[in-house]
Amino acid sequence: MAATTTQPMGSLPSGLGICTTAPDIFYLPELVFGGLVWILVASTHVEPPNPLGWVMFVSVFCFVVTFLWMIIFGVGAHKNSSGWAAVDFAYHGVAAMFYLSAGVDLAIVTMARKVGEARIYHIDIAAVVFAFVAILLYFIHAILSALRWKYF
Questions:
Q1: Owning domain of residue 117
Q2: Number of domains within the chain
Q3: What is the rounded end-to-end Cα distance, in angstroms, of the chain?
Q4: Taking the CA of residue 44 as centre, how many other CA atoms within 13 Å lie in the half-sphere pointing to its CB?
Q5: Helix (H) or strand (E) holding 59
Q6: pLDDT tens-digit readout, 5-53
Q7: pLDDT tens digits, residue range 47-57?
Q8: What is the phi/psi pair of residue 120, to 5°?
């Protein structure tokens, strides 16, 4: 009888396994939707600068850290020490909270900017939608990472 090599719920994948296992399958959509928020907010005039500066910080920070996190998991650097499951949960939980605050700020600024150029208003609406999709992705990733951490 052939032995099957299934990965236990708590183990952390590496290599192409990050593209096929939950919660790690969310890395690419998080990058795509976070990058879209970054691009759409950067493509308009940043006014008022304070809340939209926070949106830019969150989208760039989460994009860069998620990309680095995906690279760490992809090359298997996390196999050298323990605690990665907890750090994965903590990062995605913080990213979900960051994106929640940034998405709400972006929605408030967009609602206040109804009068003006229609093209910019539509770009801002798209950025709000993508920000809330990113919130959902990071939140689901955090929940699944918490489950993996519990069983790790």
A1: 17-151
A2: 1
A3: 28
A4: 29
A5: helix 49-75
A6: 444 444 666 666 666 777 778 888 999 999 999 999 998 876 777 788 8
A7: 777 788 899 99
A8: -70, -40
